[in-house]
């Protein structure tokens, strides 16, 4: 995912429906942390678990991310 695509996804995050999905680079930008930290957060229950769409495609539900971010405030 390119930097422009990530920026566009973050800019439009508030307008995405709760049923939308985002990939790992967007989640990293939302939480401002590395990929390893994202997976540690998933294991600890601080970040919602992703869904596997295919063997090489993992994505997170926008609605679940919003709930987790709101609860962390």
List the helices and strands and how they pair.
Blueprint lengths: L2 H9 L9 E3 H8 L3 H10 L6 E4 L2 E5 H11 L1
Antiparallel strand pairs: 1-3, 2-3
Helix pairs in contact: 1-2
User: Helix proportion of residues, in percent?
Assistant: 40-55%
The number of strands is 3
- Distance N to C terminus: 28 Å
The best one-word shape is: globular
Order of helices and strands: HEHHEEH
Q: Looking across the biggest beta sheet, what order are the strands in? A: 1-3-2
Note the beta-strand portion: 15-25%
> What is the average of the pLDDT values?
92
Number of domains: 1
Number of helices: 4
* Radius of gyration, whole Å: 12 Å
Q: What structural class do helix, strand and pairing data support?
A: alpha+beta
Low-confidence stretches: none
- Main beta-sheet strand count, sense and barrel state: 3 strands, antiparallel
Describe this structure in words.
The chain is of the alpha+beta class and 73 residues long. It has one domain. The chain has four helices and three strands, in the order H-E-H-H-E-E-H. It has helices spanning 3-11, 24-31, 35-44, 62-72; strands at residues 21-23, 51-54, 57-61. A three-stranded antiparallel β-sheet has the order 1-3-2. A hairpin with a 2-residue loop joins strand 2 and strand 3 (57-61). Helix 1 crosses helix 2. The protein starts with a helix and ends with a helix. The mean pLDDT is 92.
List keywords for this structure.
73 residues, alpha+beta, three-stranded antiparallel β-sheet, globular
């Amino acid at each position: 995912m390119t930097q422009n695509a990530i920026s566009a996804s973050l800019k439009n995050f508030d307008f995405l429906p709760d049923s939308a999905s985002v990939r790992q680079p967007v989640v990293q930008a939302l939480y401002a942390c590395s990929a390893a930290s994202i997976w540690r957060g998933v294991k600890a229950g601080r970040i919602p678990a992703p869904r596997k769409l295919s063997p090489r495609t993992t994505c997170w539900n926008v609605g679940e991310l919003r709930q987790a971010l709101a609860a962390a405030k």
